[in-house]
Amino acid sequence: MMSVYWNTRIRGLSPYVPGEQPQDGKIVKLNTNENPYPPSPKVIEAIKKAADEKLRLYPDPACTEFREAAAARYGVKPEQVFAGNGSDEVLAFAFAAFFEPGRDAPPVLFPDITYSFYPVYAELWGTPFRTVPLAEDFSIVVEDYLVPSGGAVIANPNAPTGLFLSLDGIFALAAYLEQQGRVLVVDEAYIAFAGGGRRCPADSAVSFIGKYRNILTVHTLSKSASLAGLRAGFALGDQALIEGLCRVRDSFNSYTLDRIALAGAAAALSDAAYYDGITEKIIKTRGRVSAELEGMGFTVPPSSANFIFVRHPRLGGREFFAALRERGILVRHFDRPRIADYLRVSMGSDGDMDRFLDACRGI
Ligand SMILES: *Cc1c(COP(=O)(O)O)cnc(C)c1O
To answer: How far apart are CA 259 and CA 250, in angstroms?
Structure first.
């Protein structure tokens, strides 16, 4: 559709297309990396408590409770935390705040295969970008980013490949960009599932705080905290970067998080014990499913996320997707160069994954 009422900027956009959310409860849904386990009971309790007559009042625009809980969890100061309506919003604000718009601006760099929202944000804000090819094995080649640019965005672990880039690589990139006066955004949506999953800050680039003033790590409660339906994300970084994000937010919508979401997010970040438990279960499931698929002849690059990226040498991606769909299983297929024969499969409950494995045997 086109409309004469759309301005030229809107006409030129190609918006992100989110994974399908079928309303039919019978489908095994492994297409959007949601967590198969429920959120912590403490989250539900906090949300119920927040649903009271105070809803007539605006929420805390500084998101104090949420930011304090994130700061405590990651060992940083509340001034080093920005809270947003899902990490997608935080990423959109980061593109607006740190990357130069305009045809002649130096391009922002990100991998050719990564989260497909990045080019959409760049387009929205009019920021030029250049994609950098991943290696044949889908790993990120850090040296390829050590060239003049407008900044860089890396998802770590990367999506949809699931591969993890070592912190040495991240810091080498940060050091180079710091000299250029540019920002490195590290999207850590899946960090809880990396490196064995113990104590998620261990694998996070947050240990940079105080060292590199140009790294911003972006986090979400959608995947690891089972709260995709709540819409809560946050970023950690030097106070100056956090203030840059606040400038964008306060030029747009001062209350991006409602009272319910603020209460739930703070409670989630305060219940590490519960979340470490379910994260460990997902990592175990990922190991079992990967091994069984490899036994059937599938190729499964090593995943550090709550999904795997799968291909069979004798099966096209579109064909594989359709065959699973016929068997009531929904996964994600990206019809794009280099990855058209792969499917991204979220880790469901063990029962769901048994159904998936049975279907793969049948196919
Ligand atoms: C899911 C995902 C997000 C978005 O998370 P929300 O907090 O739900 O907006 C961001 N980045 C990556 C790489 C993701 O996979």
So the answer is: 18
